[in-house]
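quick one before i forget lol
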Amino acid sequence: MTLLPGNEGIAQAVADRVGKLLGTVGGGGMARAELLATGAVVEAKRARAGRTLFLPGNWTEIGAPHLPLETAKLATHVVCPLYGNRILAPFVRVLPTAPLHEMFAEAWERR
């Protein structure tokens, strides 16, 4: 994964990777269909998302340079949107606070 200066694009790069993984694991979309069938994700179109699978629930718009995200992810990413494009977070961008494999494992246990 290539990061742009200042980490812009990291969330999009992660979303692209996850989307590609879901499209190829289990025979070209089977994992995607299974996730949809369980209700763990919903298929939708959302502004500036660059993907079509989302966690169920509300969508939080955050101004550029940040990307909007599922409201459920605010707690795991330790992000508090303020106003406009301002956030209160441990990083200057909306980024995961733990390695992705750990976050996925924790989310799987919570389901």
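fyi The chain has a mean pLDDT of 80.
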